[in-house]
Fold:
Amino acid sequence: MTEATESGAARPAPLAVEIRGLDVTRGGAPALQDVSLSIARGSITGLLGPSGCGKTTLMRCVVGTQIVESGTVTVLGRPAGSTPLRSRVGYVTQEPSVYLDISIRDNVRYFASLYGRGNDAVAETIEAVGLSTHAHHAAGDLSGGQLSRVSLACALVGRPEVLVLDEPTVGLDPVLRAELWEHFASLAASGTTLLVSSHVMDEADHCESLLLLRKGRLLAHVPPDELRRRTGKSNLEEAFLVLIRDQQVGVQP
Structure:
């Protein structure tokens, strides 16, 4: 991604995330191996790969909660996890992170207070995740999909500059999934950078670029259409399988 200078020449867009030579070991085994990548600000990047490939580990590195073996992770120009980033980076985990004994509104209001946001932001965020009619319900009375949306609202209400989402659409119906992706697109258009993991390959077309991981290694970092062009496959799941087979026979994607 590039942006124009005053002279009309193109220059690289400012980076939200820059990773160089990242290695992570978990449980005595390599979880990430020599991962290097850059993510431009105001973009949606999809993180795809089979279970156990290192997606969650990579996201934990970006938010600064993962011990790294070697390499560097820079977010918004600062080392990942540094104190100034705490109000600038949001993270939604796979498991809902909410208080079950209080209402949706009170959960979101609590996180809003941490970021200095008012009640208007609380109402807008609850509406954005489709829970306005349930705002007074206790979180403990909600379904799994609804709890995931409450977690998302708690992260969104702080209006982070970088938003890391670990499979945010799991358990949601197709209509709500589509609505959430529309909301993600509007966030990116307003300048928010999103890193979204998914196991649903058809969601990849909502992303500007894709990070394809397998066994802790980055197979490719490409836009969806470029992935199709490289592999000759229109179906993204089939294209991903081509990359895997190429790696197995020693062919670089």
Q: What stands out?
A: The CA atoms of residues 60 and 89 lie 12 Å apart. The mean pLDDT is 88. The domain at 2-88+162-248 is CATH 3.40.50.300 (Rossmann fold). Helices lie at 55-63, 104-114, 119-128, 144-156, 174-189, 224-231, 236-248.
